[in-house]
Please model this.
Amino acid sequence: MSATIISLPDQSTARIPKRNYLTQENGILSWLLTQDHKRIGLLYLMSITMFFFIGGALAGLIRLELLTPQSDLLAADTYNKVFTMHGIIMIFFFLVPSVPAVLGNFFLPMMIGAKDLALPKMNLASWYFYMAGGILALWAMITGGVDTGWTFTTPLSTHYVNTNVVTTGLAIFIAGFSSIFTGLNFIVTIHKMRAPGMTWFRLPLFVWSNYAAAVLMVLGTPVLATALILVVLERVVGIGIFDPTKGGDPLLFQHLFWFYSHPAVYIMILPGMGVISEVVSTFSRKRVFGYTAVAFSSVAIAVFGFFVWAHHMFIMGISSYAALVFSLLTMLVAVPSAIKIFNWAFTLYKGSITFETPMLYAFGFMGLFTIGGMTGVFLGTTGTDIHLTETYFVVAHFHFVMVGGMLMAFLAGIHFWWPKMTGRMYPEKISQLAALITYIGFNLTFFPQFILGTLGMPRRYAAYPAEFQVLNVFSTAGATVLGVGYLLPMLYLTWSIKYGKIAGDNPWQATGLEWQTQSPPLTENFAEMPVMDHEAYDYEWLERQKEKEVASVG
Amino acid sequence: MSDSTAIAHGAAAGTHHEHPPYLRHHFESVDQQTDASNFAMWLFLLTEVMFFGGLFTVYMIYRNWYYPAFSAASHQLDVMLGGINTVILITSSFTMALAVWCAETRKKSGLVAMLVVTFLLGVVFLGIKGHEYKEKWDKHHFPGASYSVQAFVNPASDPLQVNAQGKPLAPLAPDMAARTEMYFCLYFAMTGMHALHMLIGMGILIFMIFRARAGAYTEGHSAYVNYFGLYWHFVDIVWLFLFPLLYLINRH
Model:
């Protein structure tokens, strides 16, 4: 067994196809007015990378401030603004659009054998809404910031702060349209645009998980819009739905907010899980174990995800019977998540595993997501939650899921599909090193925060008692390593656009339809409409295809 | 997969069947295109249902909590004006349906006329709504510092606070009377959001009237009129829920 499955064309004769979606048209307008899902995916890639590094810089500031127990680098109110903006940018402008709007946009139509998403204009509009919302949020940050936390909790956001709540709220409201448009487009595309032979149970699991996430986007985002609009109305014209002096209930805001924002964590993680399914199957040369179970577990996560929101409010004064029910439902979400982890593990079993970079990130995902998910069960237990809520335990928990899980999945996907997107390979050795650095840096940053949380260090404060300093120093040191781990891909991926080895159509010998066309693809994706005549992840079919090609050439 | 195959295929596709100009490049057939766009429109309406669903949930909760205040405050709304507006909106839905029919049967002048009538009915609706808003404003029933509970603690002072027999209603205790402000919060938030949707719809209507005068939609591709019709009917249906919830139930 060779240590690698990569099969690059002979470099002396290799060339990038002259006609592809990148060379189809030139000029800045051909990008800004494009309706090609692949180009829009790249627009999204560039913009979310920008927001990621802004959010990352803010995270760096937070960690630097927490290096010492006193509030010395940042004043307490500045610190509040910094962590608020870190949360808003990372959640609404990076995590939510990351995998769906970049990789989903680019590959979902190709995977089902379509020429484009069903509604290309709406797809472009989605990017413009995203940018408008993002720029408005940055503007709010520059002109004074907002310090409510990303949750806009009432009555703090309506009565007790005088920062840019309205501007930021509207920014997120606008960005919500981009999310709705993407989700809507995916659902319509998956229902109506599949190639002949592409039945629901031949869809790659990446498509299934994006479908589930799209349902959440379409059903959840409008409710967030309701909540934000009511906060804006309360601040601007005095319509006091959440104002206790008018008989309003501030807790009602949290019900509406978390009705979106809890499913939103599944909007973030589900597409990432789809990436992991593709990567694990490709690099162990095996069909995903229990394909149907993995497909339905995505749907199950989407359904259960809508009935667990109140676990964010256990200590906020909801009825203890409600807490009981929501706690039980929260435990239920662990079941489909575990189905996925177990099935990936069984896919690895007796597979021909190779350790290319995407696979390393996928391993990182599986380990870190498992820890993140299991600690979620601690927090879903009403008794332990009383002790752990609003401490660094919560911070560590969702960073394990979002950064350790989702960001690893995003990087796995970017590396996995990079050859298809650009036609060139990323440099393998240095990217493996980057994956390792990310993994080490991540654990060093966030594992100490679990301990800090159980010791009782509260989140969202600029200062802390001196006895917590050692663990905080570990965490800040880890954040530095993590920063290097994220800068490296940015640098070598940019380098590889020009200098990488030419990848050829299918360097990983993967089975998805997106690999059965040229790299980079044509604007219309396929020279002729593909017909799906085999099951998903059928590596024997791929072998037969290769034999046929050899035979016909011979 | 080479360039020449793609071109050859493209040429072959052209000879298979005639492509109408409105068939977008990424669809295989007009049926698929209409099917997909129609489905997308229904999904969009689903997001609207979720948006208003949030507001209706809030209404349901507070109505349950502050039932006497909501019951008393609803007397301040004019059932006659609300009823007229309901008739106007239903009529506008009818004219919109006629517009769709005109587009499908390629009647250009009929289409323009029906779109104009739909637009005008929208203007009348918003005019009446604006008049109602002004009444509330003048009586200090807009939520805020100047909100007045006078009509509810002393119903005899207000000719609207009467039951079906014309007798003044029982006064509310001051704390419950204060909760009438929540009723008006919801009244303005919900009808305001509805009015905003009408304004957006009327903006699109103006655009469509100009396009239709130039001959669009009546050349066999009427789908756009159909999608807008779905939106317009949806906005009407929202009102058909708002009207009984705000104006009618438990009034008598």
Summary: Chain B has nine helices and no strands. The radius of gyration of chain B is 25 Å. The mean pLDDT of chain B is 89. The first helix of chain B runs from residue 3 to 16.
